[in-house]
Amino acid sequence: MSKTEAEYREQISQFISDFNSLREEVAKMIVGYEDVVEKTLICLFAGGNVLLEGVPGLGKTMLVRVLSQALHCEFRRVQFTADLMPTDILGTNMIVQHGNRRELVFQKGPIFTHLLLSDEINRATPRTQSALLEAMEEHSVSVGTHTYTLEEPFFVLATQNPIEQSGTYPLPQAALDKFLFKLIVGYPNFDELDEIIARTTRQEMPEIRAVMSREKVLEMRALVREVPVASHVERYAGRLVLASHPDNEHATDMVRRYVKNGSSPRGIVGLLLGAKVRALLNGRFSVACEDIQEVALTTLRHRLQLTFEGQAEEIPADRIVENIIENTREMDASDAA
Q1: Considering only CA atoms, which of 6, 42, 12 is closest in space to residue 226?
Q2: Domain map (residue ranges) of the chain
Q3: What is the CATH class of 1-82+110-224?
Q4: N or C: more exposed end of the chain, with fewer CB within 10 A?
Q5: What is the pLDDT of residues 6-40, one digit of tens each?
Q6: pLDDT, tens digit (0-9, with 9 covering 90-100), for 277-331
Q7: Residues 6+ apart with CB under 8 A from 38
Q8: Does 227-337 match 1-82+110-224 at the fold level?
Q9: Which residues touch 138 (CB under 8 Å, ≥6 apart)?
Q10: How far is CA 210 from CA 23, 24, 25, 65, in A?
């Protein structure tokens, strides 16, 4: 049964209210980083995973902890190190003694949760990093001959440190592609530092309330999927992704010079899902090109592989994505056909 316009307007209003309640609860502890917090929540309701990159001490781990407190969901944290094994994340089969009988029982690892913090993911070996890939993509875990389905919602937030790269294992492109968004956590300004001091050195810390249940998260995710996208907006998102490929007709001069490989098809999925959440937050039940543009940087920056020249000249991926946005038309002749 189709919904009426009034019902859609009511759902949009409730979505905005619930989103803002969660954002305000997180803001009780997190100073500044409004854009990072908002994009993290957008990714949560779009059903994706987030990679947070920033130097130590900026509050990346704190953001995830506070979000887990504001959500009435299970939370687990895994500190990635070079000696971490896949079974430390997934779990393992163990022999359990029951009287005179022994039984093989699967002991679940920390991945069996709703919200998983993978702290400093680039410090683990590729073998351990790959243990997350199936869970992030399929929301299931295979151990031996059995496959275990993870309870929804399942949301991975991974952090990585862009400095001190000695002894680390940079994420391969296949792993990076599993993250819907990559967010850069910058350094706070003077006023924000002053507020951080005030909040962290007084006796009482702010109390974080659980303002949203897992059922509400799933309900909001379902509404996001219902948001329609006009064909010309879909084609615009497609042109942005194709423009990231140096051998494509839509590629810019900057892409042809500095990009070796462009975004996978997951890039357009990320653009559209993120844009749907943005449309709802803007009070609309339809996606506009401006919604695509608002999430393009966080969706595409980690999906570009630079050429040797691009790496040698230290060309930021963000500048290339911005160049793609500036030079890609929102409408072309095929959209009018």
Answers
A1: 12
A2: 1-82+110-224, 227-337
A3: alpha beta
A4: N
A5: 888 888 999 999 999 999 888 888 777 888 889 99
A6: 999 999 999 999 999 999 999 999 999 999 999 999 989 999 999 999 999 988 7
A7: 23
A8: no
A9: none
A10: 12, 12, 8, 12
